[in-house]
C-alpha cells in the first residue's frame, strides 16, 4: 500500500484496494493506523516557481541541546519551511526554506536568528535548480515530468 502511495499519494481508497488486493475498508483502516502512528504523513506539494518561492536554501545550524525542541518547533511552523531535522555533528540542525529570491535568503536567516537567539547558522546551501523531489523528477518550470520511486523501507 505504501509503495502505491509513494507513486501517487492521491489514490482513492477504492483504487488502493484494487492495487493491493484488499478491500477499501481495510485500506481505510490501515491508513488510519499508519497516520495515527506517525508512520505516514500526507502533504500537498507544488511547483516552487509557481508558488513564488523558486529559491531553496538549506541552512546547517547549531543550537544547544536544551533548545533543540523549541528550535525545531519554531522553524517547522514557518510557512516557508520545507524541512527541519536534527542531525549529528557540530551543526545539529538542518533546515530547508523556500525563498522569493537570493536577497530573501539573508532576510529570512536574519529574522530566524532574531527569533531564535541561541541558533547559529553555520553555512548556506542555495539550490539553483531542483531536479528531483521525493522521487518526482522536475522540469525547468518545477513541474513533475516523471518519477523514480523511493523505497521508504
Radius of gyration: 18 Å
Output the CATH homologous superfamily of the largest domain.
Lrp/AsnC effector binding domain/regulation of amino acid metabolism (RAM) domain
Overall number of domains:
2
Structural class: alpha+beta
Key attributes of the depicted protein:
single chain; about 150 residues; alpha+beta; Alpha-Beta Plaits; three-stranded antiparallel sheet; 6 helices
3D structure, described in words:
This protein has helices at 2-7, 13-20, 24-36, 48-51, 68-76, 102-115, and strands at residues 55-62, 81-86, 93-99, 120-121, 125-126, 132-133, 136-138, 144-147. It has 153 residues and is of the alpha+beta class. It has 2 domains: 2-36, no CATH class; 48-126, Alpha-Beta Plaits (2-Layer Sandwich). Strands 1, 2, 3, 4 and 5 form a 5-stranded antiparallel beta sheet that branches. A 3-stranded antiparallel beta sheet has the order 6-7-8, with no helix packed on it.
Provide the fold topology.
Layout: H1 2-7, H2 13-20, H3 24-36, H4 48-51, E1 55-62, H5 68-76, E2 81-86, E3 93-99, H6 102-115, E4 120-121, E5 125-126, E6 132-133, E7 136-138, E8 144-147
Antiparallel strand pairs: 1-3, 1-4, 1-5, 2-3, 6-7, 7-8
Amino acid at each position: 500500500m505504501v509503495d502505491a502511495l509513494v507513486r501517487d499519494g492521491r489514490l482513492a481508497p477504492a483504487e488502493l484496494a484494487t492495487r493491493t488486493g484488499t478491500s477499501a475498508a481495510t485500506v481505510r483502516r490501515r491508513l488510519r493506523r499508519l497516520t495515527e502512528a506517525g508512520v505516514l504523513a500526507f502533504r500537498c506539494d507544488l511547483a516552487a516557481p509557481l508558488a513564488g518561492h523558486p529559491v531553496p536554501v538549506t541552512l546547517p545550524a547549531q543550537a544547544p541541546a536544551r533548545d533543540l525542541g523549541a528550535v525545531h518547533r519554531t522553524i517547522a511552523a514557518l510557512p516557508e519551511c520545507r524541512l527541519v531535522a536534527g542531525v549529528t555533528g557540530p551543526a545539529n540542525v538542518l533546515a530547508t526554506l523556500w525563498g522569493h529570491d537570493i536577497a530573501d535568503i539573508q532576510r529570512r536567516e536574519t529574522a530566524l536568528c532574531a527569533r531564535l537567539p541561541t541558533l547559529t547558522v553555520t553555512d548556506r546551501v542555495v539550490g539553483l535548480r531542483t531536479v528531483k523531489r521525493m522521487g518526482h523528477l522536475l522540469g525547468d518550470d518545477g513541474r513533475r515530468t516523471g518519477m523514480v520511486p523511493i523505497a521508504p523501507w
